[in-house]
Design goal:
mainly beta, 3 domains, 7-stranded antiparallel β-sheet
């Protein structure tokens, strides 16, 4: 077998469906509820196209991958016009989609008068088709004109079977980093950084007048990080404290640690020290 255009990967499992607490308690979660947050993001390389050899990748390498490799899926419904839910657990915000790229949204909120007001929206890629405002009962009656069904299954768009093994297709841009022992080498055009966590225990003690154990209250900066490696083209050295636009950062948990990936154009500058907000 020789890969032509896609990198082929093996994964331990597509979704991370277990959560282990600090006390060692293992909890099981439903990873299909927000698949992009639960997708497996580390893999092992099985095949690399000759055209991508310059990336320095080879069979057996441990790599970090974009969540899109796994979370790209296609659902099946009874018919293309049937709406399937994309949200669960809340009556205040509900949403459904179908295979015609149409979308239904029902939103309810409590007004200051104490009454609940709701809105319904029916739209497609070209914009709004129909809408309604009124009580929750009005919305439920409006929704009866549409056909609904639960997802009957889905298929992964990037999975292939080769010699009886399930492998995953990935583009070069899906490979975020490579791990060799304790060394992590970024392979994406984005700047890779480590989050900065701070101890807020003393501040909470002073503001709230309560007694707390040391290191019991921690916070994390959402707009600054520490560069994992140097980026000479941008004048960034390993260990630099970077300021960035937090709306454009992607956060990944890779090999047990958290990392930020920020497009270079949204890194605004360097700090000499960590400055409190």
């Amino acid at each position: 077998m020789e890969a032509i255009s896609s990198i082929l990967l093996s994964l331990s499992k597509p979704f991370q469906d277990e959560l282990i607490t600090e006390s060692g308690l293992k909890l099981f979660i439903d990873p299909t509820y927000q698949p992009e947050w639960n997708a497996t993001t580390t893999a092992k390389i099985e095949y690399v196209p000759k055209s991508l050899k310059e990336m320095g990748l080879k069979k057996g390498d441990d790599v970090a991958i974009s969540f899109r490799v796994v979370s790209s899926r296609e659902y099946y419904a009874s018919s293309d016009s049937d709406f399937m839910p994309t949200t669960t657990g809340s009556e205040l915000f509900r949403e459904w989609v179908n295979h015609k790229n149409q979308r239904l949204t029902a939103i309810c909120f409590m007004k200051y008068t104490g009454f609940v007001e709701c809105s319904g929206f029916f739209s497609d890629n070209d914009g709004l088709i129909d809408s309604i405002n009124g009580s929750q009962n009005n919305i439920e009656k409006w929704l009866t004109q549409f056909s609904f069904s639960k997802p009957e299954g889905f298929k992964f768009n990037n999975i292939v079977e080769i010699d009886g093994a399930a492998l995953w297709r990935a583009r070069a841009s899906d490979i975020l980093a490579k791990k060799d022992g304790d060394t992590i080498t970024p392979l994406t055009s984005s700047i890779m950084g480590m989050p900065i966590d701070i101890d807020l225990t003393q501040r909470v003690k002073i503001v709230n007048g309560v007694s707390l154990p040391d290191n019991s209250v921690n916070g994390r900066f959402s707009d600054r990080c520490i560069a994992v490696v140097g980026y000479p083209d941008y004048g960034i050295d390993e260990g630099d404290i970077l300021m960035f636009d937090k709306e454009y950062v992607q956060e990944y948990t890779l090999w047990g640690k958290d990392y930020f990936f920020i497009p270079p154009e949204f890194v605004h500058g360097k700090l000499e020290k960590i400055e409190s907000k």
